[in-house]
Design a protein that fits this description.
The complex is a heterodimer. Chain A is of the alpha+beta class. Chain A has 6 helices and 18 strands. Chain A has an 18-stranded antiparallel β-barrel. Chain B is α+β, with helices and mostly antiparallel strands. Chain B has 4 helices and 13 strands. The longest helix of chain B has 21 residues. The relative contact order of chain B is 0.19. The chains are: A alpha+beta, B alpha+beta. At the A-B interface, helix 1, strand 2, helix 2, strand 7 and strand 10 of A face helix 1, strand 1, strand 2, strand 3 and strand 6 of B.
Amino acid sequence: MQRLPVAMALALLMSAAPVRAADTADTDALLLADQPASAPQRPQDWRLSVEAARMHGVMQGGGSPVETARLSFDLNYDGKVGPGLRAVLSDRLDLVHSNTSPREGDVNTLREAYLSWQYSAQEIFDVGRVNLRYGAASGYNPTDFFKAGAVRSIVSPAPASLRENRLGTVVVQGQKLWSESSLTAAFSPRLGSAPSTNASSLDFGATNPRHRWLLQGSHKFTESFNPQVLVFGGEGTPTQAGLNLTSLVNSATVAFLEFSTGRGQSLAAQALALPEAERWQHRTAFGFTTTTAFKLSLTAEAELNSAAPDRPQWDALGAAALPNPLRLLATAQSLQDLPVRKELFFYASWQDMLVQHLDLSAFVRGDLVTRSRAQWLETRYHWDRVDVAVQWQVYSGRAGSVYAAVPQRRGVQVVMRVFL
Amino acid sequence: MNMKTFLRSAAFAAWFAAASIAHGAPDAQAILAASDAVRNPDKPFGLVVTLIEYRNSKQTDANTLEVYSKADRAGGQYSSLIRFVAPKRDANKLMLKNGNDLWFFDPSSKASIRLSPQQRLLGQASNGDVVTVNLAKDYKAALAGEEDVADGERVTRHCYKLGLTELTPDVTYHHIEMWIEARSSRPVKARFYAESGRLLKSAYYRKFEPRLGVDRPTEVVIIDGLDPNWVTVMRYSDYAWRDVPDEWLQRDYLPRFKPE
């Protein structure tokens, strides 16, 4: 009984002064909040942005610098056009002027154009070009089965940009939902035979070169265990299985695992059109993202691709013919596959770095096979409707290593985006 | 836990215990539940939330969110589907909040990303917890006394003062002080604390107007605990009953969610 008054006095001593200060601050804050309210903003079905960019690149071996100017128009529509019927359109036009040879041309990317019919709360059907994208990892997505050939115009090596600025696949798909589960079946028909370089092409040859299908299911076993399973296959496409898992490690950290397996040719055989038998290939990305109290998120990811060359294979590739490493990198870029057997990927994102509205993003890809690196860093300041960003990219490594084979060694790009 | 934290926690607990013994009668948990019912409709609903942020008396940010919420049948806690309306760079981004099961979907990159509670706290959406949460499900309430306090519109209200302590360790705030008007069960103000005893934010619930059959707060003024010059005003509009099937409250529905 003796302790209670002591504790109460202690509480009063500790709380009295801050409470008085808080009351004054509270009054000031309430006066500020008394300002007349403007009407809440309404959602809009249309979104349009314009982006202007200027890039300066330095080539391997001291060749002429690359100068590129770009103006991009980004249009999105997502609206209801009838009872349960939704229309989605997403298109990007890149007008490019550069001094490269061959000269980079203008490119239109019709990312999505589809109709979605919500037959009931549990059943939904889509038809048209849909960007079907899966994957729990950040830097490499083995279960993103429709990524091959989807990027027409690379405006940044950042994974988020590569995911965003790409062609969807023409599909007919249906989704069935239960309270804790979902099942999706998609069929992607053959609509073309080869990718097109025509600026205004819909490029069905890139996105729908064969009949293919995808089944995707997920079930929420517990709040923290909600695996996603995928099976993908089709004409001339050996069946592939994929798995995505994520878990909350603690209040600041999420761990993830992404895995796919199936028969296929090695990356070198695909790049050089070698007559190689298909073998079991495994692709994996796993890691974690942790976030600090000062708005810095860090991702560390290990990436493995059994179809990519190991060290002796990579050395043999370069020794056989000098363009071979470049052809392999070009094939990996087109397929959006990992060009090396093992890699570490680190990504950092820092919101409101030092001052409000200034964000920093950066990644490092560390090739563990030939010890080369790809690095990218962006600082971005945003106002209400305008973003201004400066981006740097550097490929480094000794001669004969993977990322040292990239023709452009360094680049700096200034970007301004206006949201209309 | 360091000595300073221990002393603060002990003092806080003793203070509430003493106050509860002194007053006895009203059921603190029932008072809190009644206050929850004032803030949260008892059926699935939707609303538009506008957040205006001020620093040093100047507006520095503004966001608009569309929220669909539904109380979980088993636990009673709210699950929410949130669509960003403004600013334009964030338009149509989505978030699913199902307890600590948090997912973010960006329609541009088609990425469904699991978020940690800490990541969610980076955004203004964390302030949504001040309203669309059933505190009586996550906190144990103790009556700390009755006080006449000035509400958010500087009108004196006779209130129950409650001390809330967390029932599970995964809630956002370790403990909360809350003032609830005795006559109407309206929440008047609250102070939210970290485990260390640090004041994280204060909130004033104000401008009560009839919404979905009950007088509910249409504005909450939030004052940062560390920097009192950082003020966020949350305005609630467009309350409506909404059908929110259980099937929608999962990651694979996020790309489909399109509010009315």
